[in-house]
Amino acid sequence: MALRPITGTTRILGVIGNPIGHSLSPVMHNAALAALGVDAVYIAFPVGVAALEAALAGFWATGISGFNVTIPHKQAVMPLLSQITPVAQAVGAVNTVWRTDQGWAGTNTDVAGFLAPLLACDRSWAGTRAVVLGQGGAARAVVAGCVQLGCSTIEVVGRRPEALTAFAASWQASPLQPPLSVYPWPSLAERLPGADLLINTTPIGMQPHPEATPLTPGLMALLPAGAIAYDLIYTPRPTRFLSLAAERQLTTFDGLEMLVQQGAAALEIWLQTPAPSDIMRQALQQHLD
Ligand code: NAP
Question: What is the Å distance from ligand 1's center to 36 Cα?
C-alpha cells in the first residue's frame, strides 16, 4: 500500500481502548481510506478508564472526526455522548462515535456486522432458535441481532449463574424485548438438539489456545443437520469449534466477516460513502496470514 502524505487537512479517525496495540482496525480502515483516496488517517489511541472523559474532550477540541470504541469503554462512553441511536441503546453499548453540531453521537455497528453473513444466507429466520454461548459484551450485540433476524427463541448459556441472571434482567426494560432464556453451562447438551443457530461469543479457542473448544465432538454431534455454527473469534481461522462443525457438514461462519462489516458500517457513517469491504477483508486476511 502506497503511503499517502499527511497534510494540514488530513482528517483523523481512530479507535480508543485499553489495551489497543493488538487492534486490527487500523489495518482495515487505513486500507479502505487508501483505496477510496480519502485524505484521512485511522489511529489506535490507548485510553485508560480514568482518561476516557479527558480523551473525548481532547478529541472534540482537536477536531477528530470520529472514532471506534472498544474494551473497556463501550458502556462507559455512553453518558459522554449527546445522541445515541436506538440500536446502541437497545444493546447497551456504543462502538462507533461521530461528530455532530450538538456533540458526539454514538451507535453500535457490531449488530450489523454480526448479521451480515447471516442475512446473505438464502433462508428464512422467522421462528428459528438461536443458542448463544457466553453472556459478555459481544453476546449483547448477538442477542440484538437475533431479534432483528426474527429468531423466536434465544437461549443464552453461560458458566456463572449470577452473570446469567444479570444478563437476562438487563433486557427487561429494553424496547427489543428479546425472547430470551438463560441456562447454566452443564445444561448445554439439552439446548443443542433444537438449535438452528449456535453462536460462540466466548473466547474459548482463541489464540493462544487454538486447541480449546466450547463444544466437544460429542456435543457437536447433538446439533441438527441444518444448523449453522458461528464463532465470533477471528484468529485462528478456523477455530476448533468451527472445524468440528465443518466435519459435521454444518454451515460455518467465523468472526472475520463480522469484524469487516462492523468496520464498513462505521466508515460509512464517518465518510458518508460506501465502504470498500472487499479491500478491508483482504487487508485483514493478509495481515493475519
Ligand atoms: P467479554 O465481554 O469478556 O465476554 C466473554 C464471555 O465469555 C463472558 O460471558 C465469559 O463468561 C465467557 N467465557 C469466557 N471464558 C469462558 C469459559 N471458559 N467457559 C464459559 N464461558 C466463558 O468479551 P467479548 O467482548 O464479549 O468478546 C468475546 C469474544 O468475541 C472474543 O473472542 C472476541 O474476540 C470476540 N469478538 C469478536 C468480534 C468480531 O467482530 N468478530 C466482536 C466482538 C467480540 P464469564 O463472565 O463467566 O467470564
Answer: 33
Mutate to test the pocket of ligand 1, among 95, 108, 202 (most ligand atoms within 8 A of CB): 202
Q: What's the CA-to-centroid distance between 202 and ligand 1, angstroms?
A: 3
Query: How much is the pTM?
Result: 0.95
Which pLDDT score is estimated for 289?
87
Asked whether 137 lines ligand 1 (CB < 6 A), one says: yes
Average pLDDT over residues 210-224: 98
Residues 73, 74, 140, 240: which is the catalytic one? 74
Which of 108, 145, 119, 125 has its CA nearest to residue 226? Answer: 125
Q: Which three cell numbers stand for residue 226?
A: 441444518
Helices assigned H by DSSP within the chain: 25-36, 52-62, 86-91, 110-119, 137-149, 161-170, 188-191, 217-220, 240-247, 256-271, 277-288
Output phi, psi for 224, to 5 deg.
-65, 160
Q: For residue 90, which of 165, 155, 170 has the smallest C-alpha distance?
A: 170
CA 45 to chain centre: 19
Active site residue 74: yes
| Strand 129-133 versus strand 11-17 pairing type | unpaired
Cβ atoms of residues 144 and 177 within 8 Å: no
Compute the average pLDDT of residues 267-281.
98
Q: What is the mean pLDDT of residues 117-129?
A: 95
C-alpha torsion angle, residues 110, 145, 135, 104 (rounded to 10):
40
